Amino acid sequence: MKWAEIYQEICNNLHINCARDKEASLLLSSFQPDAEKLLQLLNHYRNRDFTVIGPHGGKFYSGNTNIIIVADSAIDRVQNTPHLIVTDLDGNLHKILDYFHSGSILCIHAHGDNINQMASFMPMVGSSFIGTSQVPEEKYLMNIEGFTDGDRAVIMADRLGAKTIRLDGFNFSEPVEKKNSRDKNLKLKYAEMIIRSVVERRTGRTCTIIPKFF
């Protein structure tokens, strides 16, 4: 399936207002993210080993040389500054902002449920972020064809030319409780489907269970 078809299916099954997603994209785009400059910095990580951090498990210390990408639901696990944080602004924003000031690059996603968070959070980071959207691309934003922070984090690792990707703290049968979240089990199914497609493309093999290392 093409992303437009997947997105429409997600909207139908989760009762997502596509017009609100478009509105969110326009708002995020208005901050004119300097994605090109930040992606050039991230290009230095190409052909490196990546670890993508999900929300399950204990405290995580990045004591090796892997490039660390964190989904924002996992931000409280991380004990030192990650290279990249993938967020739709429903995680611990104080900690995300602290890591931003410590050098983390933010990849911020626009959707209809986070318009208020964007309006209050974005002035604190200005244009120093990478912006993504799940609707057709707006100026300054990328549509990387992901739905949850976790699957977008995996997609970013893949797009950044990861030599290997290790998953830490991903459990597709245990949703993380979040305020005002839609059907969490169904969201996890879509995240699993999207990550599986990345694994299968990278390995050239069909997989029924997503490996922790690929």
Overview of the structural elements:
The protein is an alpha/beta fold and 214 residues long. β3 (84-87), α4 (93-101) and β4 (105-110) form a beta-alpha-beta unit. The chain has seven helices and seven strands. 37% of the residues lie in helices and 14% in strands. The chain has a seven-stranded parallel sheet.
> How many structural domains are formed by the residues?
1
Distance between the ends: 23 Å
Radius of gyration of CA atoms, rounded to a whole number: 16 Å
Runs with pLDDT <50, length 5+? none
- Structural class label: alpha/beta
| Secondary structure: helix percent | 25-40%
Total DSSP E strands: 7
Main β-sheet, spatial strand arrangement? 6-5-4-3-2-1-7
Helix-strand topology string: HHHEEEHEHEEHEH
- Main sheet specs: 7 strands, parallel
The rough form would be described as globular
Number of helices: 7
The whole-number mean of residue pLDDT values reads 93
Strand content: 5-15%
Key attributes of the depicted protein:
single chain; 214 residues; alpha/beta; seven-stranded parallel sheet; 7 strands; 14% strand
Concise description?
The protein is α/β, with parallel strands linked by helices and 214 residues long.
Secondary-structure map with pairings?
Elements: H1 3-14, H2 18-29, H3 35-42, E1 49-53, E2 67-71, E3 84-87, H4 93-101, E4 105-110, H5 115-121, E5 130-133, E6 141-142, H6 149-159, E7 164-168, H7 184-203
Helix pairs in contact: 6-7
